[in-house]
């Protein structure tokens, strides 16, 4: 606890803190000071007070720098790993979206399938009806002898014309 320099009331909480490096001593040591800004609850006066002191040396600063460099290296490695994971997840997302689109098409295809099955059933019925009209009933059919094979005549056509012959079926 810190006492107010104006009225002497003890103040417990600071409003703001910051660190500051002091001037080097004759022996070359430097102090890092943690300073707090307080406001008196009684008289509303603002004042500063040192919260803590720490000796710093060049060796200590170098150690902190090395530790920070190691933390940066670890962070860059983790960043690279996370970027790879993100790319893999994006690929997986694209595959899943494609699968979703394919699955969305299934109901449409099923509807088309059922309509086509209905049409096929109708066409089969029509075919059956047409076959009944074309083939005479078995009792009316009289045995007919097969016609004698006609003499085959070669088709005569120019090279630019199509070869169409009624006597010889085209192969």
Structure, explained:
The radius of gyration is 50 Å and the shape is rod-shaped. It has a domain at 2-56. The protein has 171 residues and is an alpha+beta fold. It is built from one helix and five strands. Residues 157-171 have low confidence and may be disordered. The chain has one helix spanning 58-134, and strands at residues 2-3, 10-11, 14-21, 30-39, 46-56. The strands form two sheets. It has a three-stranded antiparallel β-sheet. The N and C termini lie far apart (112 Å). The longest helix has 77 residues, at 58-134.
Strand order of the largest sheet: 3-4-5
Please, how many helices? 1
Low-pLDDT runs: 157-171
**Which percent range fits the helix content?**
40-55%
Shape: rod-shaped
Kindly report the average pLDDT value: 82
Terminal Cα span: 112 Å
> Strand portion, in percent?
15-25%
**Could you describe the largest sheet, including whether it forms a barrel?**
3 strands, antiparallel
Q: Quickly give the structural class.
A: alpha+beta
Give a count of the beta strands, DSSP E runs of length 2 or more: 5
Please trace the helix and strand order, writing H or E for each element: EEEEEH
Estimated radius of gyration: 50 Å
């Amino acid at each position: 606890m810190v006492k107010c320099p104006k009225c002497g009331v003890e103040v417990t909480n600071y409003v703001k803190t910051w660190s500051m490096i002091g001037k080097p001593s004759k022996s070359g040591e430097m102090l890092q000071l943690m300073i707090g800004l307080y406001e008196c609850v009684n008289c509303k006066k603002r004042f500063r007070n040192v919260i803590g002191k720490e000796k710093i040396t060049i060796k200590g600063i170098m150690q902190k720098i090395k530790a920070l460099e190691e933390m940066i290296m670890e962070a860059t490695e983790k960043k690279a790993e996370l970027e790879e994971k993100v790319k893999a997840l994006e690929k997986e997302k694209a595959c899943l979206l494609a699968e979703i689109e394919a699955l969305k098409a299934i109901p449409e295809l099923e509807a088309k399938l059922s309509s086509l099955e209905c049409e096929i059933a109708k066409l089969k019925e029509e075919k059956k009806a047409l076959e009944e009209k074309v083939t005479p009933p078995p009792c009316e059919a009289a045995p007919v002898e097969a016609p004698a094979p006609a003499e085959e005549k070669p088709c005569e056509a120019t090279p630019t014309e199509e070869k169409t012959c009624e006597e010889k079926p085209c192969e």
